[in-house]
Please model this.
Amino acid sequence: MRTFDEIVDLAAQHHGDRAQVLQKIANEHARPDLTAVSDAEYLSQMTQAVFSAGFNWKVIQNKWPGFEAAFAGFDPHRVAFFSDEDMDRLLSDKGIVRNGQKIKATLENARFIVETKKEHGSFGAFLAQWPVGDQAGLLAHMAKHGSRLGGATAQYFLRFSGYDAWITSRDVCAALVREGVLDKPTATSKTAMKKVDEAISALSQQGGVSRASVSRLLALSVG
Model:
């Protein structure tokens, strides 16, 4: 695998000089203290990720005030105890996207957050204590205990929530194939995800930048 500096040089061939590349890879979503984020905001971001998957994200964004009203401001303790009547209400609410499976997932994810809070104090505290460099393990945990939080959905949730997350986009995977980390331009197996974790963590340490920034750098290096 090339070094961090060598990959910066590759990206600079497509996106200006090194200084421009390093500016572009800055992670604008980073949060210095994940515990300062409320559980309601985590549920909100989780729901945005779930509803945006396979859908036009601009439609979701435009309807978001309706989502906030329909889901009680995303208070996990309230949403976790929504009744069958609430489910019927949501399925007929024109202010949101009326996808039954994704609405149900929001209720289930509220319960996931509530259960996590019982053990760790808050969802942010849970994320903050997760071992650095084991995003693959975190994604597996979320896929198992959350609802519709597999694959890229959970990765985007983590990134937009402020967690230092990499994303296995098409360009990132293509770059990792080029570097000999992956055999094919997808990363779905546990083995592949672990390889992604190890490679991105190594480049992060070399460059002294976040793992999210390395992810962005790899994408830029493709073209």
Summary: The CA atoms of residues 12 and 21 lie 6 Å apart.
